[in-house]
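Hi V.,

You were right to ask for the full record rather than a summary. Here it is.
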Amino acid sequence: MTLQLGDIAPDFEADTTEGRIRFHDYIEGSWAMMVSHPKDFTPVCTTELGSMALKKPEFDKRGVKMIGISVDSVDDHLRWKNDIKDVTGADVSYPMIGDSDLTVAKLYGMIHPNASGNAKSRTAADNSTVRNVMIIGPDKRIKLILTYPMSTGRNFDEILRVVDSLQLTATKSVATPANWKQGEDVIILGSVSDEAAKEKFPQGWKTLKPYLRIVKL
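Predicted structure:
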């Protein structure tokens, strides 16, 4: 399966470090972030999971439920959590999905559908494409897909920035420009006529080009 932006995130049931879940029930009415990993006890992923844990209060403030998935068992995840705390000082308090048989990795198109074997027989390199970040909206549709190589740790400040943009643009008739941060000027959507913009943005805007109108947040 090849997932695209706007697709419904596939539902599934799985065991996690916080008990068994049905994914759609877990995210019901909330934003969600799923972060996938190729193997437990890998160096870059250890730092990432700790970073996620440290940033959890920021995601909580935005109403984003966090969930991790790694191609290993829940028992391995529970042992790995101890290493993550030793390395980063952070407690992993969000669920981590066990995916020993690759079911979720295949369902989300993160690994070849013909991949075989279980977690114990596979290396991190075998699962190297299981390195996605997905942001899912309250409508259960995929809003963002990022895929990182194993050698590059993910930047959760950037992911928070994207969440701020997604949540703003989901309800307002604006888009955010390159390198935008919360509080900065935004762009009026091209689908909004000048007449309609006068009602939506009575404070006015700056026209850089007929198709590029900048307005204060």
